[in-house]
């Protein structure tokens, strides 16, 4: 397994890296959220652009991401438009989804983009190729808010993300039972240990699933999501608490 180096962090080495989403509606809210994240500390900032009121005005998107980069300096920036069908704030058509992600990848302001793996193979491959041509890494993602698929299916989905050319597969599922959390962790361990070409990201959402956000160093998930204020998904912990737990676990198993 080959770690992914992005700016000053290496995803896939040591303790899971902490990513904090920004879910501001206005450009001003987005910049203020970034300032708050800088105070508390994180490894990655994710701009959840589906929350942004002007996200379909590409000139304003590029202007905002440029201003965001000025605020965060050398911190790693992940750009994500999460579609409504996978838990996001807005629906989007195929042509706009491609154009938006390609415009941002070419902006020179982001380090990573998130592409939903099941948007269509041709679309996903096109965005990945454009991003890679710009030196931007790609997380291919899949979110299931209804259930936790069987272990074999989880591994199959992550393998498909790799086959499409993504640098980091990501899968998030909703547990209906405690056993579902074990299913997610087992799939993570097998994918990381047997099939992964690079780092992977997995999580079980909701309250009971929070354990999956903490034990990535043991089972093989290389990045976890925390909150500074408003959360972007069920089960996210405040960053200050998340950092304490991750540091304690890392110290205990090192």
Word description of this protein:
With 254 residues, this protein is of the alpha/beta class. The chain is 41% helix and 20% strand. It has 8 helices and 11 strands. It has helices at 27-40, 58-72, 94-105, 121-133, 151-163, 178-195, 216-219, 239-253, and strands spanning 4-6, 9-11, 17-22, 44-48, 76-80, 112-116, 137-144, 168-173, 201-204, 223-227, 237-238. It has a 9-stranded parallel β-sheet with strand order 9-8-7-6-5-4-3-10-11. The protein has a two-stranded antiparallel sheet with strand order 1-2. Helix 1 (27-40) packs parallel to helix 2.
Structural features:
single chain, 254 residues, alpha/beta, two-stranded antiparallel sheet, 8 helices
Strands, helices and their partners?
Layout (H helix, E strand, L loop, with lengths): L3 E3 L2 E3 L5 E6 L4 H14 L3 E5 L9 H15 L3 E5 L13 H12 L6 E5 L4 H13 L3 E8 L6 H13 L4 E6 L4 H18 L5 E4 L11 H4 L3 E5 L9 E2 H15 L1
Parallel strand pairs: 3-4, 3-10, 4-5, 5-6, 6-7, 7-8, 8-9, 10-11
Antiparallel strand pairs: 1-2
Helix pairs in contact: 1-2, 3-4, 5-6
Strand content: 15-25%
Tally of separate helices: 8
Largest sheet: 9 strands, parallel
Overall outline: globular
Along the chain, the helix and strand elements come as: EEEHEHEHEHEHEHEHEEH
**Alpha-beta content class:** alpha/beta
How many beta-strand segments?
11
Distance between the termini: 19 Å
Helix content: 40-55%
Rounded mean pLDDT score: 95
Uncertain runs with pLDDT below 50, 5 residues or more? none
Q: What gyration radius follows from the Cα positions, in whole Å?
A: 17 Å
Widest sheet, order of strands: 9-8-7-6-5-4-3-10-11
